[in-house]
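G., before I forget:
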Amino acid sequence: MAFVATLFFVSGLVFVVVRVLPGDPALVIIGPEGSPEAAARLREALGLNRPLPLQYVEWLTNALQGDLGVSLQYDLPVGRLIASRLPVTLPLTLMAALLMAATALPVGLYAARRHRRAGDYLAMAVSQIGVAIPGFWAGLLLILLFSVHLGWVQSGGFAGWSVGLWPGVRSLLLPAVALGLFQAAVLVRATRSSVLDVLGEDYVRTARAKGVSELSVIGKHTLRNALIPIVTVAGVQLGQLMAGAIILESVFALPGLGRLALGAITARDLPVVQGVTLFVASSIVLINFAVDLLYVVLDPRIRYD
Amino acid sequence: MHHFGTLRPLAALAFGLLVSPAAAPAQNLVVQSATEPPGLDLTATPASATAVVVFYNVQESLVKVDRHGKIVPWLAERWHTADNKNYTFFLKRGVRFHNGRELRAADVKFVIDRAMNPETKHPYPGYYAAISDIIVKDDYTITFTLKSTSANFLLNMARQGSVIYPREAVDTLKSEPIGTGPYKLAEWVRGDRIVLVKNPDYHVKGLPKLDRVTYRFISDPNAALAALKAGDIDAAMFGLGPEHVPELQKDPRFQVIIGETTNDVIMSMNNSRKPYSDVRVRRAITHGINKPEVVKGAMFGLGSVLGTNVDPLNPYFVDMSGAMPYDPGKAKKLLAEAGYPNGFEAVLRVAPQYYYTVRTGEVLAAQLQKIGVRIKIEQVEWGQWLSRVWKDAEYDLTIIGHAEAWDIANYANPKYYFRYDNADFQKLFAESEITVDDKARRELYVRMQKKLVEDAPVVWLYIHPRLAVTKKGVQGIWKDLPLPAFDLSEVAWAK
């Protein structure tokens, strides 16, 4: 129920926001050299002169039936446009998330175990740099190093999955690193503090006093209990990865959802802006829902009635 | 992923032919394009991103503006007019559209009739306003009758909005345009690239020289530079900034092409608003601007200083760059005369989508400060700029490049965002439109330019240079751009 209400709210908000923004889609399409009369005729043809509530109800009715409208600039169904961009954005986000988790969990754990020792300070210093570096800049630095100087990977663009798995993965590697490793910095800090909290608990001390092996203390008693705050942060970050993809897709010239959205905003392609926003919002709501479910798995004491 | 599944076999076939052992090595070119076209229909959008791909490469017009700015016969092998009111075009025989059908006079009539129809929502209906009748004499002969003589009629027939396409393909122009051009569309992977392949039946013998052209959409200039250096693209024809030029000029792997364009960068003043309605204030602002310094500061010294609307590629160009020289003393005096001895405050609205507008604005703000005009720079997003500045003239000052060739008409339109309303100028312009005699017309253009300099409705700053960078060995690229066209028919790799 909350799920539906959130989406309903988001759809209404986006619908109103993109329309109250100054900037007329017809003018953007027809351009500054075109005649105002042509723009006026186009506005009429696009149905932008009709009352706002009417436009919204119509859009919502269609959206509920799975029809997100037709792109003003591409003349293609929005649903098809979104679907065509997913083979880039989904693997990119997934790869970035895997990289993020694979780096952040061990490093965070290590830093917590080495609390206030050299390893901890080093991990914290490095992650501080990671937090401070914006993704697009990291992306450019990676391109300079791995494409221009070493020539290992393409500087941008997407090879496509039809060519094979490896060429596809290869074109997403650098952006995934730029996206994932630098987001990992935040998760390292969350992991460290969460593990530290648990390490100070009585039951950990008891386990150690009983002579339980260190591996078991960390794996069974600490990590599982520390995971709830970590999963919460990771869930939020997964949403941020999708947002970060918008900028990195431009830097790496990838035909993903983010670039679709960016181009649509500039071109005032309202149906596409609405469609993509609705899609991203639904994904984030779904991620949060998945995180909630994960709580139950991690901690059987949590119950949803 | 791919929307053009049906076209892929075609591309694969073409590619297969190219790599067959008997064939000469394939001539492929990968070009960066900063913006993805918002559709490929030149009769529906004025976007230069569309013209970059389609104009003269995929679709062509009856006559063409060549690389020197001259109007030459193209799909029409010649034309005839006895009275400058009736133009008869004789079509080249045997010209085939990409669908295999021969070009006929009926196609030309269909295309121009459609452009004139308000229902079409053509972006430039004004170009066809002078036409009263189009008569197909036979399959290869067509006559245009004009309401009155129109000096720009032939030029308008050469523009991007006048490309000829087969009538049966009118519904797919936006995504699968076909025409008579040297290249045909092979695929458009939305968000990533557009691929053109050689048209083997092209009506000009020996052209095109390339087998395949790929436009890759890379919007970030730094990413484009990296792609060039990494060897992933062969040319960046648009999208690199002047700041990249010195570095690339030193690099032996590349050639930098710097040429003229028709893109005049101007700072417009709202002539309907105080204090800019006072010609003394407009002149003061003009005298307060050091244009060579603007070019140096904002454009790394690239781009020629401009004195009036007519650009150096135009045959009626008169060098007026020294007519209103930098003279802060005179500027202050003029401001005092106009009742602003202490200057005034002004908002300068610029759209950062066009990087040069922001940079130029910063230099101008510093310069105008010295004559007491205190400028606040306000950056607005492009869509907003179009609505607020261009459409509603809701601004004091603004900077933008006017890319169109032969656009002096804007100054004769009091509703244009300059809001410049001068009866004398409008009369001169109206006369120039119907004067066909070259000498008389040139005289009118000189008088118009002088009038504009005197009235200073805007400040003409500089011509935005054409900056193209290619790998060494790429030949045949147009140096100057007399029309916003990016003709690749003669481009080839050196042997």
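Residues 1-23 of chain B have pLDDT under 50 and may be disordered. The longest helix of chain B spans residues 438-455.

More on Monday.
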